[in-house]
Amino acid sequence: MSTIIRWNPLREMAEMQTAMNRLFDDTWRSVWPVVETSSTLPLDVYETDAGYSVIATLPGVEQDQIHITLNQNILTLDAEVPQHTLQEGQHALIVERPYGKVTRSITLPRPVHADQVEAVYENGLLTLTLPLSPESQPKRITVNSNGHLLQQSNK
After folding, report:
1. Number of independent structural domains in the chain
2. To pair with 100 at 20 to 30 A between CA atoms, which of 5, 17, 54, 133?
């Protein structure tokens, strides 16, 4: 007994695309070696009324290999994550941890006080504290009417 399957041209095209992708991946992977390039450094960025906190994970990186610049509200982090070197008689079964040059630049929404930026690197975790510059912090303005104070606030 035969089963009748309704013809679906979209399914056919999807299967053809998958087959073509597999063909090209298998053919060209051995011809063109994968070249390691600079990758993006993932960050956590938090904002408070006082400024920003930036956290980056940099496992195995020496403190002197981390470069941080702040130029016109653009924060840039650069580092070189070392590749594990195989010992004699050792061979890799799985290599998933990223290595090589990592970099990340972000534009901060408001100006920070560059002279008061703090960077702490501990246990592979880089934490930056970037306080807002006094000019960019909100100011409360009191309203006077005919020499009498109408509104006053300590905020």
Report:
1. 1
2. 54
Q: Is residue 69 part of a domain?
A: yes
Contact predicate 53/115, CB 8 Å: no
Kindly report, residue by residue over 67-100, the tens digit of the pLDDT.
999 998 899 999 988 888 888 988 888 887 778 8
Task: Give the alpha-carbon dihedral of 14, 15, 19, 24, to 10 degrees.
Answer: 0
Helices (H) and strands (E) in the chain, counts: 1, 10
pTM of the model: 0.61
> Three-state SS for 61?
coil
Q: For residue 14, what are the CA distances in angstroms to 5, 20, 94, 121, 150? A: 17, 10, 31, 48, 70
Domain limits for position 64: 39-84+95-136
Pull the structure tokens for residue 72: 């016109």
Q: Which residue from 129, 114, 127, 106 is spatially nearest to 63, judged by alpha carbons?
A: 127
Q: What is the rounded distance in angstroms from the CA atom of residue 13 to the CA atom of residue 94? A: 34
